[in-house]
Protein backbone atom coordinates (compact mmCIF):
# COMPACT_ATOMS: atom_id res chain seq x y z
CA UNK A 1 0.00 0.00 0.00
CA UNK A 2 1.22 3.47 -0.96
CA UNK A 3 1.44 5.65 2.15
CA UNK A 4 0.16 9.16 1.47
CA UNK A 5 0.90 12.23 3.56
CA UNK A 6 -1.40 15.09 2.55
CA UNK A 7 -0.34 18.70 3.19
CA UNK A 8 -3.11 21.28 3.57
CA UNK A 9 -3.70 24.88 4.62
CA UNK A 10 -7.41 25.57 4.39
CA UNK A 11 -10.76 24.19 3.38
CA UNK A 12 -9.51 20.73 2.53
CA UNK A 13 -11.99 19.96 -0.24
CA UNK A 14 -9.25 18.23 -2.21
CA UNK A 15 -8.29 16.26 0.90
CA UNK A 16 -11.97 15.25 1.16
CA UNK A 17 -11.94 14.15 -2.48
CA UNK A 18 -8.98 11.86 -1.71
CA UNK A 19 -10.62 10.47 1.46
CA UNK A 20 -13.84 9.75 -0.48
CA UNK A 21 -11.95 8.12 -3.36
CA UNK A 22 -10.01 5.85 -0.98
CA UNK A 23 -13.29 4.89 0.73
CA UNK A 24 -15.21 4.13 -2.45
CA UNK A 25 -12.36 2.32 -4.23
CA UNK A 26 -11.53 4.90 -6.92
CA UNK A 27 -8.11 4.98 -5.27
CA UNK A 28 -6.75 1.49 -4.76
CA UNK A 29 -3.57 0.40 -3.10
CA UNK A 30 -3.09 3.68 -1.19
CA UNK A 31 -4.12 5.22 2.11
CA UNK A 32 -3.58 8.50 3.96
CA UNK A 33 -1.23 7.98 6.91
CA UNK A 34 -1.06 11.60 8.04
CA UNK A 35 -2.41 15.08 7.29
CA UNK A 36 -0.12 18.03 7.97
CA UNK A 37 -1.57 21.53 8.08
CA UNK A 38 0.36 24.80 7.92
CA UNK A 39 -2.45 26.43 9.94
CA UNK A 40 -4.38 25.52 13.05
CA UNK A 41 -8.20 25.58 13.18
CA UNK A 42 -8.79 24.97 9.49
CA UNK A 43 -11.62 22.88 8.08
CA UNK A 44 -9.13 20.47 6.51
CA UNK A 45 -8.14 19.33 10.03
CA UNK A 46 -11.80 18.62 10.90
CA UNK A 47 -12.11 16.57 7.73
CA UNK A 48 -9.04 14.53 8.69
CA UNK A 49 -10.31 14.00 12.27
CA UNK A 50 -13.73 12.92 10.99
CA UNK A 51 -12.02 10.33 8.81
CA UNK A 52 -9.88 9.11 11.72
CA UNK A 53 -6.62 10.29 10.16
CA UNK A 54 -3.69 11.40 12.30
CA UNK A 55 -2.85 15.13 12.02
CA UNK A 56 -0.01 17.54 12.74
CA UNK A 57 0.04 21.33 12.60
CA UNK A 58 3.41 22.72 11.50
CA UNK A 59 3.25 26.45 11.00
CA UNK A 60 6.28 28.32 9.71
CA UNK A 61 5.37 31.29 11.88
CA UNK A 62 5.89 29.35 15.08
CA UNK A 63 9.58 28.79 14.27
CA UNK A 64 12.24 31.49 14.63
CA UNK A 65 14.56 29.77 12.18
CA UNK A 66 13.61 28.46 8.76
CA UNK A 67 16.00 25.52 9.28
CA UNK A 68 14.04 24.45 12.37
CA UNK A 69 10.76 24.63 10.45
CA UNK A 70 12.30 22.63 7.59
CA UNK A 71 13.56 19.97 9.97
CA UNK A 72 10.19 19.69 11.74
CA UNK A 73 8.30 19.38 8.48
CA UNK A 74 10.65 16.80 7.00
CA UNK A 75 10.59 14.62 10.10
CA UNK A 76 6.77 14.83 10.32
CA UNK A 77 6.69 13.54 6.74
CA UNK A 78 9.38 10.88 7.21
CA UNK A 79 7.94 9.55 10.48
CA UNK A 80 4.96 7.56 9.14
CA UNK A 81 7.04 6.19 6.23
CA UNK A 82 5.55 8.40 3.52
CA UNK A 83 5.74 7.11 -0.06
CA UNK A 84 3.93 10.02 -1.74
CA UNK A 85 3.42 13.61 -0.54
CA UNK A 86 0.24 15.24 -1.81
CA UNK A 87 0.03 19.03 -1.73
CA UNK A 88 -3.69 19.78 -1.53
CA UNK A 89 -3.85 23.54 -1.16
CA UNK A 90 -0.64 23.79 0.91
CA UNK A 91 0.39 27.44 0.95
CA UNK A 92 3.93 27.24 2.37
CA UNK A 93 7.00 26.90 0.14
CA UNK A 94 8.60 23.48 0.60
CA UNK A 95 12.20 23.18 1.84
CA UNK A 96 14.47 22.44 -1.17
CA UNK A 97 16.00 19.49 0.71
CA UNK A 98 12.52 17.95 1.04
CA UNK A 99 11.92 18.36 -2.70
CA UNK A 100 15.27 16.67 -3.43
CA UNK A 101 14.67 13.88 -0.93
CA UNK A 102 11.24 13.09 -2.39
CA UNK A 103 12.07 13.59 -6.05
CA UNK A 104 9.09 12.51 -8.21
CA UNK A 105 7.24 11.58 -5.02
CA UNK A 106 5.51 14.92 -4.38
CA UNK A 107 2.44 15.96 -6.34
CA UNK A 108 0.49 19.22 -6.38
CA UNK A 109 -2.91 20.28 -7.66
CA UNK A 110 -2.95 23.67 -9.38
CA UNK A 111 -6.20 25.37 -10.44
CA UNK A 112 -5.28 26.25 -14.04
CA UNK A 113 -4.02 24.59 -17.19
CA UNK A 114 -0.26 24.92 -16.65
CA UNK A 115 1.66 26.76 -18.15
CA UNK A 116 -1.14 29.35 -18.03
CA UNK A 117 -1.76 31.28 -14.82
CA UNK A 118 0.89 29.58 -12.71
CA UNK A 119 4.18 30.36 -11.01
CA UNK A 120 5.01 32.84 -8.27
CA UNK A 121 1.96 34.74 -6.99
CA UNK A 122 -0.61 32.52 -8.72
CA UNK A 123 -2.50 30.81 -5.92
CA UNK A 124 -6.08 30.63 -4.67
CA UNK A 125 -8.54 33.13 -6.11
CA UNK A 126 -5.76 35.11 -7.84
CA UNK A 127 -5.50 32.38 -10.48
CA UNK A 128 -9.18 32.72 -11.37
CA UNK A 129 -9.12 36.53 -11.20
CA UNK A 130 -6.32 36.54 -13.78
CA UNK A 131 -8.08 34.01 -16.02
CA UNK A 132 -11.20 36.21 -16.03
CA UNK A 133 -9.16 39.39 -16.54
CA UNK A 134 -7.45 37.83 -19.58
CA UNK A 135 -10.77 36.63 -20.93
CA UNK A 136 -9.85 32.99 -21.55
CA UNK A 137 -12.76 30.77 -22.61
CA UNK A 138 -11.24 27.61 -21.16
CA UNK A 139 -9.34 27.07 -17.95
CA UNK A 140 -8.96 23.95 -15.80
CA UNK A 141 -6.67 22.19 -13.37
CA UNK A 142 -3.33 20.38 -13.44
CA UNK A 143 -1.77 17.68 -11.27
CA UNK A 144 2.00 17.77 -11.52
CA UNK A 145 5.11 16.50 -9.79
CA UNK A 146 6.84 19.11 -7.67
CA UNK A 147 10.38 20.13 -8.53
CA UNK A 148 12.46 22.98 -7.14
CA UNK A 149 10.70 25.56 -9.32
CA UNK A 150 7.21 26.98 -8.88
CA UNK A 151 4.54 24.92 -10.71
CA UNK A 152 7.27 23.78 -13.11
CA UNK A 153 7.43 20.01 -12.52
CA UNK A 154 6.32 17.25 -14.92
CA UNK A 155 2.59 17.31 -15.68
CA UNK A 156 0.64 14.17 -14.76
CA UNK A 157 -3.00 15.01 -15.58
CA UNK A 158 -4.97 18.03 -16.77
CA UNK A 159 -8.67 18.67 -17.22
CA UNK A 160 -10.29 21.59 -19.03
CA UNK A 161 -13.23 23.59 -17.65
CA UNK A 162 -15.33 26.19 -19.51
CA UNK A 163 -15.39 29.80 -18.40
CA UNK A 164 -19.00 31.02 -18.62
CA UNK A 165 -20.55 34.47 -19.02
CA UNK A 166 -21.20 36.05 -15.63
CA UNK A 167 -18.47 34.06 -13.85
CA UNK A 168 -16.94 35.66 -10.78
CA UNK A 169 -13.58 34.38 -9.45
CA UNK A 170 -15.49 32.52 -6.73
CA UNK A 171 -17.94 30.86 -9.15
CA UNK A 172 -15.12 29.88 -11.49
CA UNK A 173 -13.01 28.56 -8.60
CA UNK A 174 -15.84 26.31 -7.51
CA UNK A 175 -16.49 25.01 -11.05
CA UNK A 176 -12.78 24.25 -11.52
CA UNK A 177 -12.74 22.33 -8.23
CA UNK A 178 -15.94 20.40 -8.91
CA UNK A 179 -15.31 19.55 -12.57
CA UNK A 180 -11.55 19.12 -12.49
CA UNK A 181 -9.57 19.21 -9.21
CA UNK A 182 -11.69 16.76 -7.21
CA UNK A 183 -11.53 14.31 -10.11
CA UNK A 184 -7.95 14.45 -11.38
CA UNK A 185 -6.20 14.53 -8.01
CA UNK A 186 -7.65 11.17 -6.88
CA UNK A 187 -7.16 9.83 -10.42
CA UNK A 188 -3.47 10.78 -10.39
CA UNK A 189 -2.96 9.17 -6.98
CA UNK A 190 -4.63 5.98 -8.21
CA UNK A 191 -2.38 5.91 -11.29
CA UNK A 192 0.73 6.35 -9.14
CA UNK A 193 -0.44 3.73 -6.63
CA UNK A 194 -1.01 1.36 -9.54
CA UNK A 195 2.61 1.82 -10.62
CA UNK A 196 1.53 3.34 -13.92
CA UNK A 197 3.32 6.69 -13.75
CA UNK A 198 6.92 7.16 -14.73
CA UNK A 199 8.98 10.28 -15.36
CA UNK A 200 11.19 10.11 -18.42
CA UNK A 201 13.31 13.05 -19.51
CA UNK A 202 11.20 15.53 -17.55
CA UNK A 203 7.92 14.22 -18.93
CA UNK A 204 5.35 11.88 -17.45
CA UNK A 205 4.57 8.61 -19.20
CA UNK A 206 1.40 6.80 -18.16
CA UNK A 207 1.44 3.04 -18.62
CA UNK A 208 -1.47 0.77 -19.43
CA UNK A 209 -3.51 -0.82 -16.66
CA UNK A 210 -2.48 -4.38 -15.81
CA UNK A 211 -4.84 -7.02 -17.22
CA UNK A 212 -6.84 -8.55 -14.39
C1 LIG B 1 -7.37 24.48 -4.61
O1 LIG B 1 -7.94 25.36 -5.53
C2 LIG B 1 -6.07 23.97 -5.13
O2 LIG B 1 -6.02 23.85 -6.51
C3 LIG B 1 -5.12 25.04 -4.69
O3 LIG B 1 -5.60 25.45 -3.42
C4 LIG B 1 -7.00 25.19 -3.32
C5 LIG B 1 -7.20 24.33 -2.11
O4 LIG B 1 -8.54 24.12 -1.80
N1 LIG B 1 -3.75 24.57 -4.75
P1 LIG B 1 -8.94 23.03 -0.70
O5 LIG B 1 -8.23 23.39 0.59
O6 LIG B 1 -8.56 21.68 -1.21
O7 LIG B 1 -10.44 23.17 -0.54
List its salient traits.
Rossmann fold, globular, binds 5-O-phosphono-beta-D-ribofuranosylamine, 212 residues, 7-stranded mixed β-sheet, 2 domains, alpha/beta
Order of helices and strands: EHEHEHEHEHEEHEE
Largest sheet: 7 strands, mixed
**Second CATH tier, the architecture of the largest domain:** 3-Layer(aba) Sandwich
How far is the N terminus from the C terminus?
Answer: 18 Å
CATH topology descriptor of the largest domain: Rossmann fold
Name of the CATH homologous superfamily of the largest domain:
Formyl transferase, N-terminal domain
Low-confidence stretches: none
Notes on the structure:
The chain has 212 residues and is an alpha/beta fold. The chain folds into 2 domains: 1-102, Rossmann fold (3-Layer(aba) Sandwich); 108-212, Rossmann fold (3-Layer(aba) Sandwich). It contains 6 helices and 9 strands. The strands form 2 sheets. A 7-stranded mixed β-sheet has the order 3-2-1-4-5-6-7, covered by helices on one side. It is globular. The two termini are 18 Å apart. It binds 5-O-phosphono-beta-D-ribofuranosylamine.
